[in-house]
Amino acid sequence: MTVKNTTGKAGKITSHKVDTSDVEEITYCEADIALRLSAATMKAESMQPYLAMALYAMPRVAVPGLGTFASDAKWRFYYDPACVMKWNVDEIAGAILHEVGHCVRGHADRFASMNEPSHLARIYNIAGDVLINGDLRADNITLPQGCVYVETLQTEGVDVSSDMSAEQVYRKIIEKMEEMCTCGKGGKGDDDPRNSDDEQGDSSS
């Protein structure tokens, strides 16, 4: 992938995570952050006015060091102040709309209903990311650099398309992961993603 991912168990934070390793230590005040978030929210509303209620209803939670924006099943909006300071207003607006997209599409609840292992929520999150990002790009909405798209997966050999559902994209990613396992031909082995108990909240690939 071209992005990092942050996700927890089903219903927890689900988000694409943009690499901010090149960001120097930033000093900021809460007023600066609030002003930039407000400006970006108004920008987001102007681009997709039918989401206005959701944009202004989501409680904001600052999470320094998160490295991204995120959301959860309770429609809470998480943000890293460093990202707010690094990204321009258009990019912040696009990232906010991305998180609203996860909420309005019910991604957290949809993954929970699949009864899949909780550590695979990060894979479902990628599936949701590529579809949301593609729709936002089609509307000429700017996103931060490093976001994942359908063609990102395609270049890695995942047989997906933009007309699939998040569940279909998820299955295709899982199939590719299983194909790449070194567990041999005898069914699911130790390398199969479904057998992992790894609950890493932050992964990069």
Structural notes for this entry:
By secondary structure, the chain is mostly helical. It has eight helices and six strands; from the N terminus they run ββααβββααααααβ. It has helices at 30-47, 52-57, 81-86, 89-104, 107-113, 121-138, 150-155, 166-179; strands spanning 4-7, 14-17, 60-62, 69-71, 77-79, 202-204. The strands form two sheets. A three-stranded antiparallel β-sheet has the order 2-1-6, with helices on one face. A three-stranded mixed β-sheet has the order 3-5-4. Strand 4 (69-71) and strand 5 (77-79) form a beta hairpin. The radius of gyration is 17 Å and the shape is globular.
Condensed summary:
The chain is mainly alpha-helical and 205 residues long.
The secondary-structure class comes to mainly alpha
Biggest beta sheet summary: 3 strands, antiparallel
Quote the beta fraction.
5-15%
Percent helix: 40-55%
- Overall pLDDT: 83
Radius of gyration: 17 Å
The number of helical segments is: 8
Task: Report the strand count.
Answer: 6
